[in-house]
Amino acid sequence: MRDRMPYDAFDRLPKTDIEVPGGIIHAAFAPGDFMLPREKLLDWIRMSARAVTTYYGRFPVNSLRLLLVPVDGGRIRGGTTWGYRGAAIRIPLGRDSSEDVLHRDWVMVHEMVHTALPDMPDRYAWLSEGLAVYVEPVARVQAGDLTAQEIWQAMMRDMPKGLPQAGDQGLDNTGTWGRKYWGGAMFCLLADIEIRKATNNGLGLQDAMRGVLAAGGNHEQDWPIERILATADKAVGVDVLTRLHNEMGPKPVTPDLAALWRDLGLKPVGENLEFDDTAPLAAIRKAITAPRAR
């Protein structure tokens, strides 16, 4: 079954255990060879786990099964995360993948972020995917694996893909690729900024999502979206996420992204991006990518 994690087969494979703050990753390799030595692949897993742990303050689950499957080519072919028999990730990895491919990879972190959110009905996949799209680069900046310029430049380029198109019926009712991934990421960015505005930049989405995890809400649990958002709101003491969902869930909302980038102090200069630290939301922009204490 392509859409299911092969738990039984996984449990028969030899595994390498990787200890991470708050848990253990059981890494297994499907039959076949990779060009890179196994230790390099384990380093990639460790690097990705470090970024996720940096963002959440601990690894999201106590135990993760991680299956790498060799496939043709030299790139990572996406990934899938499950929680129905314990947290598990399967990633098809090109046999010829180089160290550079692994170092630049976003897929592993994206999938690990999925383990930090309870499972929800498909109509709310925008929150699961949007959170992974948004948190992954922020976590990698906080861990020192990307620069802030790189991720803000990418957000400016890609975030418009999440804007509602003709016929849109809100995030809860519009299952297009753009709305699911980038519409969800836009929701997360707006929520992060609004939480920081409401808390004098003392708290952000990071603290809200740590609150969900602290309340036992990871991917091995099934929670309704209302419980996830209420738990996150309680952690930061403001009802930003619930209110934003009430606005953006049932109907299309089109934020003025150009004004938002300007307020954050993002100034494209040719192929590059410069920061304007006099912009009204510059301090919030800096706080989003600054590492937090555990």
TrEMBL record:
Name the domain of life this protein comes from. Bacteria
Q: What is this protein called?
A: Peptidase M61 catalytic domain-containing protein
